[in-house]
Write a structure and sequence with these properties.
Order of helices and strands: EHHEEHEEHE
Number of strands: 6
Shape: globular
Distance between the termini: 26 Å
Strand order of the largest sheet: 2-1-3-5-4-6
Number of helices: 4
Mean pLDDT: 88
Radius of gyration: 14 Å
Strand content: 25-35%
Structural class: alpha/beta
């Protein structure tokens, strides 16, 4: 069984390189295929422990979105957290910050797997909340 990256439809076309980098890192770390899918909003995941959903707060505020945050994120804020129903959520305050949120996730995944040789990513153990001040892809 592989993992799935679900990117919000309008955003997927704006940061395709970053999403493919995330796919490559997950494929390398898990030694399993990683699919990329698109959907308008964060939804219930069939396999939450194998799903990463990427979105902005603007999409979550849409009237048709089934998922809402309890508070607004600051302009440069990123939230990476696991939900038992939705999988790992990567939420950025704006589209401009979303790419940096994905970069931060890649750093967290590598750190998690570096602790124990051969350790596979455990999405349910990841949590990070902070500003978008993260290194660029060249540092990864």
């Amino acid at each position: 069984m592989g993992m799935t990256i679900i990117a919000a439809s309008p955003l997927a076309g704006r940061i395709p390189t970053t999403i493919h980098q995330l796919q490559h890192i997950l494929t390398t770390l898990t030694l399993n295929p990683v699919r990329i899918s698109h959907t308008p909003f964060i939804e219930i995941a069939l396999s939450p422990k194998e799903t990463i959903q990427i979105s902005t707060t603007a999409q979550l505020k849409h009237q048709d979105s089934p998922f809402r945050l309890k508070r607004d994120l600051a302009e440069d804020e990123i939230l990476i957290t696991f939900s038992p129903e939705k999988g790992l959520l990567v939420i950025a305050s704006t589209e401009a910050v979303l790419e940096q949120a994905c970069m931060k996730l890649m750093m967290l995944l590598r750190q998690q797997c570096a602790v124990i040789p051969g350790h596979k990513p455990r999405l349910e153990e990841l949590f990070w909340n902070g500003s978008s001040d993260v290194p660029h892809a060249a540092a990864l």
